[in-house]
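Please, structure for the following, as tokens.
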Amino acid sequence: MGSSNLIRAHPLEEDQPEIETNIVLLTLLEDNHLVENDPFFELYYFPDHDYILLPANLLSPYLAVEMNFQRELGLLTLSKNNLEVKIDLSARKYLGHENWDQEKIIIFGGEFYLSKSVFEYLTDYQISWSNSLQELTITGDFTKDDFSTDEFESESKKKQKLKDQDQFSGEKLAGFTLNSVHYRVGFELSEDDLFESQQELTTELNFYGRFKNWAYSLNNDFNYNLKSNNFDYKLDNLELKSCENNNLLIIGDYDFNFAKTIVQNEMQGIYYRIPEKLSYKLIPYTEIEIPVELDDEVSIYVNNKFVHKEIIKATGNYQFKNIELRLNYLNKIEVVKLSAAGEEIKELKYLAGSTTILQSGIKETEFLMGRYRNTSYSDDNDWEGNFIALRSNYALNRRLTFHTETAYLTKQDIDRNILTTVTGISLRAADRTVINLDFLAGGESDNLQLGSEISILYALINGYCRAVYLNVPPEVEDYLTQEEGTNISLNFKFDLNKRFSMQSIVGQHKTLVTDDIEEIDYYILRLIDNPDWRHYRSFSLYYQKELSYFPFLEYNNELYGALANNKRPGIGLAYNLYGNSYRIAADLKHYRNNIEFTNEQSPLYKQLLNESTAEVNIYKRLGENLLFSLGYDGEKDKYDDQSYDYERSYDGQLKLSLGERTAITLSAERTKEDEDELNEDNENIADLETIKSLSLNYYWNSDYSIKAELKDYSSTNLIDYQSFYLGGSYYFPVNPGSITLFGEYILPVEGENGISFGISCDKVFTNKNELTIELAREYNDYQLEGYENYLTITYSQAFAFLGDIIIKDNFNDRSPRSIVAGYVYLDQNYNGIMDAGEKRLNNIPMRLGNMISRTNKDGLFVFKPYFNDLYLLDFDYRNLIAVMYNKLCKLNIDIFLK
């Protein structure tokens, strides 16, 4: 058990993405007028799946989105206009927004990169990305006032009134309906000087629709090899979904995560849960019930902060639910009741914040059954076995919660039936104390092994103490996510003031593996400086005593076993600063090993002496035109014979903006892995890769661009080369798309010089169909002068069917959003319906909830809401003075309005 992983110095682990961020132009537009731009905006673009991730810290100020990061919870909250999105950064999950999880969250360099759907949901802005222009465009009304609380409450009352009157718009379609069809066809031709040529036809054909109360999606992939005359078909996704009466039922493909037992898997079968939306287990909540009388004014304060106020409408008991508490701490809850006569009564309560104690009345169940595979290592067509699983959380009362996560599964490759479970209770023994008791079990069904975990939380106003006992037999480790062994720890944290705190951790780990000895005592002392959620610093001291058994040591050509004691002090520094023009993130650790063997003999092989790790990322804007970034990631192990293993990588970039559309970039990357040992040529063993480049991007007239790049590449494993790249693009003026010509002259150190060149065209037409063509010749084998010629052609289109109209749309390989559409017309005969020949009105601003859309030249408006919900459809009165009947849309199907 590695000591450096016992306790993380930083609550969140950063990702190591395989791609680099794009430094692009951010443009904010209002009615086609420039509001603001930023030539150094940073985002991630994933071309294979055609989506982007946007930096929350950088983008939120532009969109007036409020952010709050609760570091101890790993919880990020973004909010605007009475809407909010909560994100579990530890699990990389959008809470309550499962459909966004396909666009994986990235944490890197102190920044949170999120799906653009987050910002589209919170705002009424349109966010579009042009990869060819390297530009992110956000279009909206940036000068209007925010949607105020009064407007929100007025809309809520209006919505409730229409709901009570059962005034819902849109026709509910009965029986089987086809709502949309998405297709993409492609042809790929490749000829290689060294390998056989390939000719393939590919087709993706996706159907989405409804059958009564069921939504279905059917995604099909076809592949035909013209050379081998081989046809291949794959049912990429089949899903039937029903959301009725607060139940969710999915039949077909589904991705699930049982974090304590069988972790993340893909399944085909049945997934059922009640309620449809599960409670947030990441946040400690509680409820308060108090006796009230008519016209009482009741206010709730938590930790001296105002939370909620309510004017009572009836005498009796009133319950405040979803009161958020501070995790692990003792929370001061104050209830202030002001009667109609002016008498003020205060009630004070203290409660420990715990995520394991759920609010009374919560009953949650998830049931899964079918076949499964772990997508991280299973083949696309290789299912591992069948399974049945249950996860449930049941609040028996305010003090006692029951929970279980259980799975029974088969493994086809080893013909075994396996049961794995974590089942337990959480008890609020006192206002300050919470006790958790879990029973662990795993193994073959006829040979189960048992384990246990007990934790006790004692909360203070300015700190907490947590004791944990964990016992996991080795036989259970293979079926759970816990490591084997006996672990005992005591964690104490104390806040010195609002900014500084101290944390001390004492623990012990013992292995339970037969014929093995491993015993680790560890001590950690940490000073934390956390002035606000954007800034975090910690200084840590580590000390570890380890007793281990080495079974195969060599002395005088003989093997023997020996015990070794290791006294291992260490030091750590975590540093995270975030400003308007800079970003610094660092995580440094160093350990010193002092190993003593109990035998008189000393082993002949070298012993690890020092361990050092460092990760540093610096991002700095110098004025309005210069950007500097630097990254370092390294790990070094030094031995008692002064030899070492050293792995490190550097990357740096200097970007000069010469205007809105012109930039010069100098970048360098270097990765090196070496050992202080000699090869046959008496040289140090090392793997080295270095890439240096100087590039120019120049745009003019918004129609043309040129890119030029000089590159120098060197490696110990591949052939070194230099290259010069020159490319030019023309951008279509009406719809997205471009034509690009490029050429690259390559000068390898070994072999002949060669040229790669090609042309590509990408065009999105007015009716949303898209055509891409790429023709190229690539020089890819310098020693054998090998070339690859390839041609790819792709055409895609989507159709949505609503009422008597067909809406053309962009291809989408994921489940499309529901659609609300309709016409705005001039009711010339005042009969309340749209008659043939009546004038349809264009450019009329419409609002559905907080979303904004304008009618096209035919008077048609289209909305794509994110959720099934009740939406108020109306004119956008802030941009239009008009009279219209309010319509309430109950969205669990596509609807069409006239």
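The first strand starts at residue 22 and ends at 30. Residues 149-164 form the longest helix (16 residues).
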